[in-house]
Design goal:
Blueprint lengths: L2 H8 L1 E5 L7 H10 L4 E5 L5 H12 L4 E5 L4 H9 L4 E3 L5 H9 L3 E3 L1 E2 L2 H9 L5 E3 L6 H9 L7 E3 L8 H6 L5 E3 L6 H6 L2 H22 L2
Parallel strand pairs: 1-2, 1-9, 2-3, 3-4, 4-5, 6-7, 7-8
Helix pairs in contact: 2-3, 2-10
Length: about 220
Protein backbone atom coordinates (compact mmCIF):
# COMPACT_ATOMS: atom_id res chain seq x y z
CA UNK A 1 0.00 0.00 0.00
CA UNK A 2 1.29 3.46 -0.89
CA UNK A 3 1.71 6.13 1.76
CA UNK A 4 -0.99 8.18 0.04
CA UNK A 5 -3.42 5.26 0.14
CA UNK A 6 -2.64 4.72 3.80
CA UNK A 7 -3.71 8.30 4.59
CA UNK A 8 -6.83 8.02 2.47
CA UNK A 9 -7.85 4.68 3.97
CA UNK A 10 -7.38 5.83 7.57
CA UNK A 11 -9.04 9.20 7.02
CA UNK A 12 -7.22 10.87 9.91
CA UNK A 13 -3.92 12.70 10.25
CA UNK A 14 -3.22 13.15 13.97
CA UNK A 15 -1.26 16.33 14.70
CA UNK A 16 0.95 16.47 17.77
CA UNK A 17 1.79 19.95 19.02
CA UNK A 18 3.23 20.62 22.47
CA UNK A 19 5.40 23.08 24.36
CA UNK A 20 7.59 20.21 25.51
CA UNK A 21 8.64 16.97 23.88
CA UNK A 22 8.77 14.95 27.09
CA UNK A 23 5.61 12.91 26.52
CA UNK A 24 5.41 12.82 22.75
CA UNK A 25 6.64 9.29 22.12
CA UNK A 26 3.98 8.12 24.59
CA UNK A 27 1.40 10.30 22.83
CA UNK A 28 2.23 8.72 19.48
CA UNK A 29 1.94 5.25 21.00
CA UNK A 30 -1.45 6.13 22.55
CA UNK A 31 -2.73 7.36 19.19
CA UNK A 32 -1.60 4.14 17.56
CA UNK A 33 -3.24 2.05 20.26
CA UNK A 34 -6.46 3.99 19.62
CA UNK A 35 -6.35 3.03 15.95
CA UNK A 36 -4.67 6.01 14.28
CA UNK A 37 -1.53 5.15 12.31
CA UNK A 38 -0.85 8.43 10.47
CA UNK A 39 0.83 10.83 12.88
CA UNK A 40 2.39 14.25 12.33
CA UNK A 41 4.76 15.99 14.77
CA UNK A 42 5.04 19.74 14.19
CA UNK A 43 8.21 21.78 14.03
CA UNK A 44 6.83 24.05 16.74
CA UNK A 45 7.79 21.33 19.25
CA UNK A 46 11.22 21.82 20.89
CA UNK A 47 13.86 19.31 19.74
CA UNK A 48 11.46 17.98 17.13
CA UNK A 49 14.14 16.20 15.10
CA UNK A 50 15.10 14.09 18.10
CA UNK A 51 11.42 13.37 18.78
CA UNK A 52 10.81 12.28 15.19
CA UNK A 53 13.77 9.91 15.44
CA UNK A 54 12.55 8.57 18.80
CA UNK A 55 9.01 7.96 17.55
CA UNK A 56 10.38 6.22 14.47
CA UNK A 57 12.54 3.99 16.67
CA UNK A 58 9.66 3.19 19.03
CA UNK A 59 6.88 2.48 16.54
CA UNK A 60 8.77 1.75 13.34
CA UNK A 61 6.58 0.96 10.35
CA UNK A 62 3.48 0.51 12.51
CA UNK A 63 2.75 4.16 11.79
CA UNK A 64 3.22 6.59 8.93
CA UNK A 65 5.24 9.38 10.54
CA UNK A 66 5.18 12.94 9.27
CA UNK A 67 6.57 16.36 10.09
CA UNK A 68 4.33 19.42 10.22
CA UNK A 69 4.74 23.21 10.18
CA UNK A 70 7.46 22.78 7.57
CA UNK A 71 7.96 26.22 6.04
CA UNK A 72 11.02 25.80 3.81
CA UNK A 73 13.07 23.16 1.96
CA UNK A 74 15.87 23.24 4.54
CA UNK A 75 13.47 22.19 7.29
CA UNK A 76 11.89 19.66 4.95
CA UNK A 77 15.22 17.97 4.22
CA UNK A 78 16.09 17.81 7.93
CA UNK A 79 12.71 16.24 8.69
CA UNK A 80 13.13 13.56 6.05
CA UNK A 81 16.60 12.70 7.35
CA UNK A 82 15.13 12.34 10.86
CA UNK A 83 12.64 9.76 9.63
CA UNK A 84 9.60 11.72 8.43
CA UNK A 85 7.72 9.97 5.64
CA UNK A 86 5.41 12.83 4.77
CA UNK A 87 5.56 16.61 5.03
CA UNK A 88 2.81 19.03 6.02
CA UNK A 89 2.84 22.82 5.94
CA UNK A 90 0.39 25.54 6.96
CA UNK A 91 1.34 27.44 3.80
CA UNK A 92 2.28 26.87 0.17
CA UNK A 93 5.99 26.69 -0.66
CA UNK A 94 6.67 25.27 -4.11
CA UNK A 95 10.28 24.41 -3.24
CA UNK A 96 9.05 22.14 -0.43
CA UNK A 97 6.80 20.31 -2.89
CA UNK A 98 9.68 20.00 -5.35
CA UNK A 99 11.99 18.51 -2.71
CA UNK A 100 9.38 15.99 -1.61
CA UNK A 101 8.80 14.93 -5.21
CA UNK A 102 12.56 14.49 -5.64
CA UNK A 103 12.62 11.96 -2.81
CA UNK A 104 9.20 10.43 -3.55
CA UNK A 105 7.74 11.62 -0.25
CA UNK A 106 4.12 12.49 0.39
CA UNK A 107 3.52 16.24 0.69
CA UNK A 108 0.52 18.18 2.01
CA UNK A 109 0.93 21.94 1.62
CA UNK A 110 -1.42 24.42 3.26
CA UNK A 111 -3.88 26.17 0.96
CA UNK A 112 -6.91 28.39 1.36
CA UNK A 113 -7.90 30.01 -1.93
CA UNK A 114 -8.81 28.41 -5.27
CA UNK A 115 -5.65 29.89 -6.79
CA UNK A 116 -3.45 28.32 -4.10
CA UNK A 117 -5.23 25.01 -4.54
CA UNK A 118 -4.66 24.88 -8.30
CA UNK A 119 -1.06 26.06 -7.94
CA UNK A 120 -0.25 23.39 -5.36
CA UNK A 121 -2.02 20.66 -7.33
CA UNK A 122 -0.20 21.55 -10.56
CA UNK A 123 3.10 21.45 -8.63
CA UNK A 124 2.42 17.83 -7.66
CA UNK A 125 1.04 18.06 -4.11
CA UNK A 126 -0.55 14.78 -3.05
CA UNK A 127 -3.12 16.19 -0.63
CA UNK A 128 -4.03 19.82 0.01
CA UNK A 129 -4.38 20.93 3.61
CA UNK A 130 -7.26 23.39 3.84
CA UNK A 131 -6.18 25.62 6.70
CA UNK A 132 -7.59 27.17 8.78
CA UNK A 133 -10.80 25.26 8.04
CA UNK A 134 -12.58 26.52 11.18
CA UNK A 135 -12.82 29.99 9.63
CA UNK A 136 -14.94 28.76 6.73
CA UNK A 137 -16.41 25.39 7.68
CA UNK A 138 -17.67 22.48 5.56
CA UNK A 139 -19.69 24.71 3.22
CA UNK A 140 -16.52 26.31 1.88
CA UNK A 141 -15.01 22.89 1.19
CA UNK A 142 -18.19 21.83 -0.60
CA UNK A 143 -18.06 24.98 -2.74
CA UNK A 144 -14.42 24.32 -3.68
CA UNK A 145 -15.17 20.74 -4.65
CA UNK A 146 -17.68 21.95 -7.25
CA UNK A 147 -15.16 23.29 -9.80
CA UNK A 148 -12.25 21.23 -8.39
CA UNK A 149 -13.57 17.69 -7.87
CA UNK A 150 -10.23 16.12 -8.79
CA UNK A 151 -8.26 17.50 -5.85
CA UNK A 152 -7.81 15.75 -2.50
CA UNK A 153 -8.49 18.17 0.35
CA UNK A 154 -7.72 17.62 4.04
CA UNK A 155 -9.45 20.21 6.25
CA UNK A 156 -7.52 21.07 9.40
CA UNK A 157 -8.74 23.32 12.19
CA UNK A 158 -12.28 23.20 13.49
CA UNK A 159 -12.68 19.46 12.98
CA UNK A 160 -14.11 17.73 16.05
CA UNK A 161 -16.52 14.93 16.91
CA UNK A 162 -19.48 17.16 15.97
CA UNK A 163 -18.19 18.63 12.70
CA UNK A 164 -16.21 15.68 11.31
CA UNK A 165 -19.20 14.06 9.53
CA UNK A 166 -20.06 17.34 7.79
CA UNK A 167 -16.51 17.75 6.48
CA UNK A 168 -16.57 14.25 4.98
CA UNK A 169 -20.02 14.90 3.49
CA UNK A 170 -18.56 18.07 1.92
CA UNK A 171 -15.88 16.02 0.18
CA UNK A 172 -12.88 15.79 2.51
CA UNK A 173 -10.51 12.95 1.61
CA UNK A 174 -9.37 12.85 5.25
CA UNK A 175 -9.15 15.28 8.18
CA UNK A 176 -6.36 16.76 10.26
CA UNK A 177 -6.93 16.57 14.02
CA UNK A 178 -4.81 18.58 16.43
CA UNK A 179 -5.92 19.90 19.80
CA UNK A 180 -9.37 18.32 19.56
CA UNK A 181 -7.65 14.92 19.59
CA UNK A 182 -4.30 15.49 21.28
CA UNK A 183 -5.64 17.60 24.13
CA UNK A 184 -3.14 19.90 25.80
CA UNK A 185 -4.31 18.97 29.31
CA UNK A 186 -4.01 15.25 28.56
CA UNK A 187 -0.48 15.65 27.23
CA UNK A 188 0.67 17.80 30.15
CA UNK A 189 -0.81 15.44 32.75
CA UNK A 190 0.38 12.32 30.97
CA UNK A 191 -3.16 11.01 30.53
CA UNK A 192 -2.47 8.66 27.66
CA UNK A 193 -5.71 6.76 28.28
CA UNK A 194 -7.67 9.89 27.37
CA UNK A 195 -5.73 10.31 24.13
CA UNK A 196 -6.12 6.63 23.22
CA UNK A 197 -9.85 6.69 23.91
CA UNK A 198 -10.38 9.88 21.90
CA UNK A 199 -8.45 8.35 19.01
CA UNK A 200 -10.73 5.32 19.08
CA UNK A 201 -13.81 7.58 19.07
CA UNK A 202 -12.60 9.47 16.01
CA UNK A 203 -11.66 6.26 14.17
CA UNK A 204 -15.12 4.82 14.82
CA UNK A 205 -16.79 8.05 13.68
CA UNK A 206 -14.86 8.10 10.40
CA UNK A 207 -15.88 4.50 9.68
CA UNK A 208 -19.51 5.22 10.58
CA UNK A 209 -19.62 8.38 8.44
CA UNK A 210 -18.04 6.71 5.43
CA UNK A 211 -20.40 3.77 5.75
CA UNK A 212 -23.39 6.13 5.73
CA UNK A 213 -21.99 7.96 2.70
CA UNK A 214 -21.19 4.72 0.90
CA UNK A 215 -17.55 5.69 0.44
Amino acid sequence: MSDLQRVLDGGIVAIIRATSGDQLVNVARALYEGGIDVIEVTFTVPNVLEILAAVRKDLGKKILLGAGTVLDPETCRAALLAGAEFIVSPALNLDVIKLCKRYSKLVMPGVFTPTEIVTAWEAGADILKLFPADCVGPNYLKALRGPLPQVRILPTGGVDLKTLPDFFKAGACAVGLGGQLVEKAAVESGNMTRIRDLAAQYVALVKQTRSQLGT
